[in-house]
Amino acid sequence: MFANLYKLKLAIILLFIFNDTVVAQNRNLDYYLELGLANSPLIKDYQNQVTGGLIDSQRLRATFRPQITATSNNSISPIIGGYGYDAALSNQQSFNELINVNQAIIGKNNLNSQYKSIRYANDSVRNGKKLIEQDLKRSITSQYITAYGDLQQLNFNIEVNYILRNQEVILKKLTQSNIYRQTDYLTFLVTMKQQELQMKQLQIQYNSDYATLNYLCGIFDTTAVNIDAPDIKLQYLNDPSSSAFFLRYKIDSIRLANDISVLKYSYRPKLTAFVNAGYSSTLLYQAYKNFGTGIGINLTVPIYDGHQRSFQEKKIQLLGSTNQHYKDFFTLQYAQQTSMLKRQLAATDLLTADINEQIKFSEGLINVNEKLLETGDVRIVDFVIAINNFLTAKNLLTQNNVSRLQIINQLNYWNQ
């Protein structure tokens, strides 16, 4: 019945009834996902953390390069009237202008462990960024589906209103010819007015949900536009352990193992070589000859720290145990969640077939009643009931389609 309606007529009715809404060009889901990800301050924060991690790696490399410093230490301890510091201790005056070069001597394995610490921290941040992106995509897609469902119901009710208006003209003429009673006409008119109120309510709902969509994406736009059907396909993940949800536990496990290595190397003997050159003098004897240089090695060997190392290792091991418990619990939740969603999707698909069959019968009944209406051979009450049944079935189909898309959106979230 509705397949033969002209789009121009629908547009005229839409503008006539809802003249406060400006209809611009259609936008699709990708448009909102792209802007939502680009405008998210949280994703930008994670991206800056990744960049900061790269800087940390460069900074660590710089700390193990030669460190050059310039020092200037100058003092005078005068003796006045025989009073003053002991000259043997204070040298009375001292002038030191030196350039110092220090080089920490560190093993390759120790250095690699520290680089790994930074790399694993960066991997954790990158994985966190991916999880935030997935959360944001799910939220935006869910809101887009909700707004699209509102728009579908709105457009359908506009089409129905167009049909009712045509039938109202016919019924009014038949009532004036005494083929139908005045009460029949009023009954039909009440139904049509109620349907128009439903349209206005749907328009308000669509505007609200569309505004929420813009809010999620960081878009300031008060213009309500048409949005395309969401192009969402069910995604499957052959190996769930490769997803970002499980990767975070793997990264944490590797990072904790590396922390033990870093702790082990921190208790190894530390060797530092130094060299300096400059001027150091008391100005008491041949000051012009006091330019020189020095070289040496500093060795630090840990002997006893009150068993702090073993305590720290136990703490890291506890963190590893906690991480494993979280992983095991999440694995169970993941299996339950995806299994439940798959069952819901199958049930929704079965319900869609039943609703389409109901719509087919309802639409056929309305077509018959339309023809009988022109000859006055149908009761208005029956016609109104047929219209309401059709509206209910169509709205139920829209709601079921929205539910199906929401389930697919949830499954795709867990399958990324």
Give the rounded overall mean pLDDT: 83
How much of the polypeptide forms β-strand, as a percent range? 5-15%
Largest sheet: 4 strands, antiparallel
Q: How many individual domains?
A: 2
CATH homologous superfamily title of the largest domain: Outer membrane efflux proteins (OEP)
- The parts where pLDDT drops under 50 for at least 5 residues are 1-24
Shape: elongated
What's the architecture of the largest domain, going by CATH? Up-down Bundle
**Strand/helix succession:** HHHEHEHHHEEHH
What order do the strands of the largest sheet run in, or round the barrel if closed?
A: 1-2-3-4
Radius of gyration: 39 Å
Q: What is the CATH first-level class name of the largest domain?
A: Mainly Alpha
CATH topology of the largest domain: Outer membrane efflux proteins (OEP)
Count of beta strands: 4
State the separation between the terminal residues, measured CA to CA.
Answer: 42 Å
Helical segment tally? 9
Helix content: 55-70%
Structural class: alpha+beta
Protein name: TolC family protein
